[in-house]
């Protein structure tokens, strides 16, 4: 074992950009390429490119729980699930306005997130809600799904807008 009490971290000319002193606000750059598999959720992301929302349904006839966000196994009874096509129309169950977001969304703040409920589905689906100011949003507001034209294979490929036809 080597102990070196004089060891030092490598110094560079790069420092932090300070935007404000009190409170201290600094600029930090963060970027990474990440290769990953969607594994059993792959069908959900492929379906977004076909303008479809896919959830899952418990195969146990006694349970039959329907999930808006897909799962491989039912969280109620433990049975396997099967793919289930969700409707493209729902209503706002809850919502919040985000004034800070991850790196990709910082330029879009503030933005609205909503928990969407669908008829015949037992759980909720979280997605961006655009096309309405925060003060115009309300619980029970009818909404419809929209899909990015150029798919990113990301949960943000689907978003919701007010469904004025159902108002």
Low-confidence stretches: none
Largest beta sheet: what is the strand line-up?
6-7-8-10-9
> What gyration radius follows from the Cα positions, in whole Å?
22 Å
The backbone outline, from C-alpha atoms, is extended
Number of DSSP helices?
A: 1
Please tell me the total number of domains: 2
- What is the rounded distance between the termini? 72 Å
Q: What is CATH's topology name of the largest domain?
A: OB fold (Dihydrolipoamide Acetyltransferase, E2P)
CATH architecture of the largest domain: Beta Barrel
Average of pLDDT: 89
The CATH class assignment of the largest domain is Mainly Beta
Major β-sheet annotation: 5 strands, mixed, barrel
Strand content: 25-35%
Helical content class: under 10%
Q: Let me know the number of strands.
A: 10
Class inferred from helices and paired strands? mainly beta
Order of helices and strands: EEHEEEEEEEE
Word description of this protein:
- The chain has 167 residues and is mainly beta.
- The chain is built from one helix and ten strands.
- A five-stranded mixed barrel has the order 6-7-8-10-9. The chain has a three-stranded antiparallel beta sheet with strand order 4-3-5.
- It is extended.
- The mean pLDDT is 89.
Question: Quick recap of the structure?
Answer:
With 167 residues, the protein is mostly beta strands. It has one helix spanning 42-48; strands spanning 17-20, 25-27, 53-58, 66-67, 81-86, 89-98, 111-117, 125-129, 142-147, 158-162. The mean pLDDT is 89.
């Amino acid at each position: 074992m080597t102990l070196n009490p004089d060891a030092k971290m490598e110094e560079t000319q790069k420092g932090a950009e300070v935007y404000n002193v009190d409170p201290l606000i600094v600029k930090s750059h963060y970027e990474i390429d990440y290769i990953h598999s969607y594994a059993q959720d792959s069908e959900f992301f492929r379906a977004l490119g076909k303008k479809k929302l896919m959830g899952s349904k418990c195969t146990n006839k006694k349970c039959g729980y329907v999930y808006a966000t897909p799962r491989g196994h039912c969280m109620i009874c433990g049975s396997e699930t099967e793919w289930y096509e969700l409707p493209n129309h729902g209503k706002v169950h809850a919502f919040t306005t985000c004034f800070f977001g991850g790196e990709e969304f910082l330029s879009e703040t503030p933005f609205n997130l909503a928990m969407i409920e669908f008829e015949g589905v037992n759980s909720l689906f979280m997605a961006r809600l655009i096309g309405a100011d925060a003060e115009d949003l309300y619980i029970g507001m009818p909404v419809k799904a929209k899909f990015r034209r150029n798919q990113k294979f990301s949960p943000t490929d689907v978003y919701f807008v007010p469904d004025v036809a159902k108002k």
